[in-house]
C-alpha cells in the first residue's frame, strides 16, 4: 500500500513539474477598429485602390514570440478610395460581384498561419493558407512585429482564387481592358 502511495505521489509530482514548465500560449487579439487593409489593383491603363475591413483576428504568442494566428476579412466591406460619385459606386459594385469577389456568396476571406520562423530582430517568416472565394492556397511572406502592431505587404495572384475577370492569362484580345493578375495588400494590424 505504501508503495502505491509513493508511486502516486511521484507521478503527481512529475505531472505538476511538466505543467509548470510548459509554456503558456497567449492569444493576442487584433484591434479591428484601428487595423487596416489597403489594396491596390493595376490595369494596363492605370490602377485603383481602396480598403477592406478586418472582421476579426488574433496572434498566438509563446514567451513573447509569434507562433501562430488567424485572421478574417469582411469582403462585403470592399471600398474604393481613389474615385468618387458614380464611378466609385460602379467599381465597388463590380468588385463585389461574381466577376470579382462574389461577396454575396463569399462574405469573408481568411488567413491561417501554419508555420512561423523567426528571422532577425522583429521580422518573422510566415507561411499559411489564404482562402478567398472558397479557394485556399498557400502563401508565404515576411511580417514585421512590434510591441503593439504588425505590418506586411503581400502580392496576391487573384487568378488562383478564381478571380479571372479581365485577366489576359485566361482571355484573349483584351487590349487596354487588361487587368493584371496580381494585386497588392498593405496590412497594418494593431493590438
Automatic annotation (TrEMBL):
SMART domains: YceI (SM00867). The keyword Signal applies. InterPro entries: Lipid/polyisoprenoid-bd_YceI, TTHA0802/YceI-like_sf. Gene3D superfamilies: Lipid/polyisoprenoid-binding, YceI-like. It holds the Pfam family YceI. Residues 27-190 form the Lipid/polyisoprenoid-binding YceI-like domain. The keyword Signal applies. Keywords: Signal. Residues 1-24 form the signal peptide. This is YceI family protein.
